[in-house]
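Thread title: Can someone regenerate the structure for this chain?

I was given the following input by a collaborator and told the matching structure tokens would be attached. They weren't. Posting the sequence so someone can regenerate them.
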Amino acid sequence: MEDENGGWIEFDISKGDIPDGYAAYPGISVGGGGLQSGTFNGDECSLACVNALTCVAFDFAYGDDGNGNVVGQCYFHELGTKCGTIADNPISYHMAELPVCTTD
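Best answer:
Regenerated them for you:
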């Protein structure tokens, strides 16, 4: 993913870390998710959602904590918010359980 200056930035979720049965959308966030308490990295957010009974999608919003550690916030989506309004968000990564959302 590129930053606003055209340079590449790194974060914790790689193609190999996408949970089975999920689709990944880097640079996208979906409205309506519930903010989870605590600070997460991408792997922790993914694992927390996969292990939560009602979580079918999540947004991981990330940034540098000033010490070179990528940390962020984790938002869980249930069925009612999984297909909410999408927005471009360069510091977010959205993953959703398959099937993917479609529009008519």
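Residues 1-15 have pLDDT under 50 and may be disordered.
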